[in-house]
Design a protein that fits this description.
By secondary structure, the chain is an alpha+beta fold. The protein has four helices and eight strands, in the order E-E-H-H-E-E-E-H-E-H-E-E. A hairpin with a 2-residue loop joins strand 3 (65-70) and strand 4. The longest helix is centred in the middle third of the chain and has 15 residues, at 108-122. It is globular, with a radius of gyration of 17 Å. The N and C termini lie far apart (62 Å). Residues 1-20 have low confidence and may be disordered.
Length: 185
């Protein structure tokens, strides 16, 4: 059984006339699905991930792991988590997003991100963060179109020595007692 919605690549419901291909978003259900999406992540992301990294995220937060399936083929995926941060803010984290290179620029990445954020927001998420390689212009544009802002640059963040941007999306306003005022001199 699959969970999730059946949508066209343009984000519309199944059967929309301007969509040539239909994608089913399914929730991660178990380790038997790793082989479906692991090759996408290994091809697209700059960091090598061991099976233990996948298990860390997907065994604790399976509801935030989504696979975009076209028939029996995984053409995109997103892996996320959500937990309280040190400031007691419920923070979502997008750990991995990958879309088959032949399916890019069709809205699938946006659909996966929006769907994951919607799930996290429904569970009380207040903000979502992620890191993206500073040279990954496509990813930076995708996230910025969805409302993420560049929070800071992380020097030599990746194993290959590349910098990253930490991106942040606020979903709820932060209580005023949590905001640290700037020192005025």
């Amino acid at each position: 059984p699959t969970t999730g919605r059946r949508r066209g690549m343009n984000g519309g419901e199944k059967g929309s006339e301007d969509s040539q291909s239909h994608v089913t978003l399914i929730t991660y259900q178990g380790e038997h699905q790793l082989a479906l999406f692991q090759p996408l992540i290994e091809t697209d992301l700059s960091e090598p991930y061991s099976v233990f990294t996948y298990r860390y995220f997907l065994n604790q937060w399976p509801q935030y792991g989504l696979l975009a399936m076209e028939h029996d083929v995984c053409i995109g995926c997103i892996v996320c988590k959500m937990e309280l941060n040190r400031h007691k803010i419920m923070r979502g984290y997008i750990a991995m997003l990958a879309v088959d290179k032949d399916r890019r620029k069709l809205g699938l990445g946006s659909l996966l991100v929006r769907s994951a954020i919607e799930r996290m927001a429904n569970d009380g998420c207040e903000e979502v963060v992620l890191e993206a390689e500073y040279t990954n212009i496509g990813a930076l544009k995708l996230y910025e179109k969805l409302g993420f802002i560049r929070d800071k640059r992380l020097e030599k963040y990746y194993l290959n020595g590349s910098d990253a941007y930490r991106l942040k999306l606020r979903l709820k306003s932060i209580p005023s007692d949590m905001i640290v005022p700037l020192n005025k001199e």
